[in-house]
């Protein structure tokens, strides 16, 4: 993380009636994370309307940092316990005719692969366009990860 010049933010609290992550065995299901920067400002907008693909990609990158924050919480503060990013689930706030969802979500996927390496960071995913997201967010991303067994 330090080599990439990244700082993981404090884990965001849920904005509704759910938990930020749930662990079963060595799998952690992380709820959708919104694109908030270090200044805690939410990146809002609609791709294809008032936001470019590059701006959307940056928003997805911020979602990846939020995901890593939740991973750190689920791993008791130790990201070295992450064994694999299994799946990324992304929603892009977009117009009906916007088609560059994969390029937007690459902002998240590429950062996860940079941080965890291609062996652990490569993942399955979906990138879905939708008409709106909570609080007007540009992107929302959840994930499923594998962590070290409790006895490791």
From TrEMBL:
Pfam families: YjgF_endoribonc (PF14588)
Highest classification ranks of the organism: Eukaryota, Sar, Stramenopiles, Ochrophyta, Chrysophyceae
Residue ranges annotated for the Endoribonuclease L-PSP/chorismate mutase-like domain, each copy included: 4-136
Organism domain of life: Eukaryota
Name this protein carries in UniProt: Endoribonuclease L-PSP/chorismate mutase-like domain-containing protein
SUPFAM superfamilies registered for this protein in UniProt: YjgF-like (SSF55298)
InterPro entries in alphabetical order: Endoribo_LPSP/chorism_mut-like, RutC-like_sf
């Amino acid at each position: 993380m330090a080599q990439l010049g990244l700082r993981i933010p404090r884990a965001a609290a849920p904005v509704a009636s759910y938990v930020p992550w749930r662990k079963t065995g060595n799998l952690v299901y992380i709820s959708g994370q919104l694109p908030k920067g270090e200044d805690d400002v939410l990146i809002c907008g609609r791709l294809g309307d008032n936001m470019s693909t590059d701006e959307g990609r940056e928003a997805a990158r911020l979602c990846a940092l939020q995901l890593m924050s939740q991973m750190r919480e689920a791993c008791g503060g130790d990201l070295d316990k992450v064994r694999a990013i299994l799946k990324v689930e992304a929603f892009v706030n977009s117009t009906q005719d916007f088609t560059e969802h994969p390029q937007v979500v690459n902002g998240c996927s590429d950062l996860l692969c940079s941080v965890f390496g291609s062996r652990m960071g490569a993942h399955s995913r979906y990138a879905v366009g939708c008409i709106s997201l909570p609080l007007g967010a540009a992107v929302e991303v959840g994930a499923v990860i594998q962590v070290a067994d409790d006895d490791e």
